[in-house]
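Input (structure):
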């Protein structure tokens, strides 16, 4: 290559045009350039090449679904793609991004993925396709790095990981989020909180999200909202059936290799829970979240306002407020079956000192709801503060006799406010929760709760959150399910029956005889007024 020829190219690379390099185009090239600028599909099918496993470096031939997807991406500002493995999703995105930066001015494309190398691999595919273009259709190159390219038309592409600070401060024209379902939920939420408003505020800016399903997480929520027309996202689905040449025999072979759950998730694009979940796959897929009617900045989501004369229970779990596990509670309407989750709270920074004030406020809001607080860790501090400092009276207590924990109406010298989650309590609660939800006798409305249920998996003889996930809201449901098995639960909100029970008990105690009502033998403890009915403790409330 002579010196004159080198001066025409970027850093001597014969495949890249340098900036400010004049080119004399023929009439045919001008017609082609104009045609390409108006039609991304024509440009891709005639000028974009990719490396394939079977055929090497070849010209792209788009599938019908890829053509429709490129049209939808070009015609819509917000697009979400649910794609199976090896269906050509990245190929069409690479082709569109290449067209976007060649035939526009002053555009900034950000390619983000769950891992920086993944994002840079997509950028590398764009660069390979760019170098294969004829020089007359290229823009001159100003920057050509591993994670960043810039052209003389002031179009730029940057590739990095999905983090809240990754593109903060940039004016993004096209944001592409690849494999977004594999970004941890906390990072995805933080990213959208910090970045999405700047994208959505523009009149021309675009956002493209694509992923294979990975459980019922934030991507599942965004896809569902798009399908239901709640978010303004155009939704595109591409499973194995959209790829020419793949038939049922191919699918059967893949199913044998991947096994059923992996095949359904990665080829059929179905949202599945983690392996070994407490709830069945069918039950998880039947759960439908709704948008809260009120969403506060401090983590409260209200799905249904309190209804006069309705009865509510709050089940609360307590963390240490250090940004790890969450303090959480669920408010359940227990007026009738099916029980319904009407409000949740979730925050991993709330101090146990402040947490009682939130419980009290929501308890009063929901018709002086009964409150059951788990006290295995910092919960004891919360329940004591709720009663002593905030003077909230409707706190449920428990007592343990012969290894069995039971709920009491009040507080005595053998009982304690709150409940300790023992192995037996958790085991029973898990079993009942599964039955309630799968029989549609407990309606879950909160997305975060459904997401946690999809990763609540078997671990030996118990169940817990899968690695990297949380189960704080699920545990509030486990304790609620356990609560429904208590003999007193059917009387929990019936004041007349509770008063009658109390009066009859007092009368029988005064007569110094053992009561036999309610169909069971009852042992009276004269020290605190509680009694044991068929193994369950009952304690009268002071009126």
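Output (sequence):
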């Amino acid at each position: 290559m002579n010196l004159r020829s080198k001066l025409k190219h970027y850093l001597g690379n014969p495949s890249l045009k340098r900036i400010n390099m004049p080119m004399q185009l023929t009439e045919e090239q001008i017609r082609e350039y104009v045609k390409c600028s108006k039609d991304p599909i024509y440009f891709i099918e005639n000028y974009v090449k990719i490396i394939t496993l079977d055929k090497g470096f070849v010209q792209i031939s788009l599938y019908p679904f890829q053509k429709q997807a490129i049209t939808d991406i070009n015609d819509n500002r917000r697009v979400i793609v649910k794609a199976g493995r090896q269906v050509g999703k990245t190929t069409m995105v690479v082709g569109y991004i290449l067209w976007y930066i060649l035939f526009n001015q002053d555009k900034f494309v950000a390619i983000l993925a769950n891992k920086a190398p993944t994002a840079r691999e997509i950028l590398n595919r764009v660069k390979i396709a760019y170098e294969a273009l004829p020089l007359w259709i290229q823009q001159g190159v100003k920057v050509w790095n591993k994670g960043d390219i810039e052209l003389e038309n002031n179009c730029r592409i940057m590739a990095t990981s999905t983090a809240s600070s990754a593109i903060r401060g940039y004016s993004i024209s096209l944001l592409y989020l690849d494999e977004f379902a594999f970004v941890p939920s906390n990072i995805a939420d933080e990213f959208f909180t910090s970045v999405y408003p700047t994208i959505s505020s523009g009149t021309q800016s675009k956002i493209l999200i694509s992923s294979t399903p990975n459980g019922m997480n934030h991507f599942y929520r965004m896809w569902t909202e798009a399908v239901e027309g709640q978010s303004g996202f155009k939704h595109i689905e591409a499973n194995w059936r959209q790829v020419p040449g793949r038939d049922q025999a191919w699918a059967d072979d893949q199913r044998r290799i991947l096994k059923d759950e992996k095949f359904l998730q990665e080829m059929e694009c179905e949202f599945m829970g983690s392996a070994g979940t407490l709830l069945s796959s069918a039950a998880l897929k039947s759960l439908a979240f709704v948008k809260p009617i009120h969403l506060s900045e401090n983590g409260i989501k209200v799905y249904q306002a309190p209804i006069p004369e309705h009865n509510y229970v709050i089940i609360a779990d307590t963390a240490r407020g250090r940004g790890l596990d969450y303090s959480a509670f669920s408010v359940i309407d227990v007026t009738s079956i099916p029980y319904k989750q009407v409000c949740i709270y979730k925050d991993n920074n709330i101090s146990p000192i402040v947490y009682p004030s939130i419980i009290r406020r929501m308890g009063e809001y929901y018709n002086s709801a009964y409150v059951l607080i788990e006290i295995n860790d910092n919960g004891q501090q919360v329940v004591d503060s709720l009663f002593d400092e905030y003077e909230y009276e409707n706190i449920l207590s428990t007592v343990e006799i012969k290894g069995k924990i039971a709920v009491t109406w009040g507080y005595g010298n053998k009982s304690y406010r709150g409940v300790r989650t023992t192995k037996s309590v958790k085991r029973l609660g898990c079993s009942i929760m599964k039955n309630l939800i799968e029989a549609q006798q407990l309606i879950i409305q909160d997305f975060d709760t459904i997401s946690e249920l999809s990763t609540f998996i078997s671990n030996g003889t118990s169940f817990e959150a899968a690695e990297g996930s949380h189960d704080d809201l699920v545990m509030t449901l486990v304790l609620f399910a356990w609560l429904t098995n208590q003999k007193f639960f059917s009387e929990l909100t019936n004041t007349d029956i509770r008063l009658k029970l109390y009066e009859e008990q007092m009368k029988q105690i005064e007569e110094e005889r053992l009561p036999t009502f309610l169909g069971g033998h009852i042992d009276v403890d004269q020290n605190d007024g509680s009694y044991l009915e068929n193994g369950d403790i009952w304690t009268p409330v002071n009126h």
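Notes: Residues 286-490 form a domain with the Nucleotidyltransferase; domain 5 fold (CATH 3.30.420.240). The first helix runs from residue 3 to 6.
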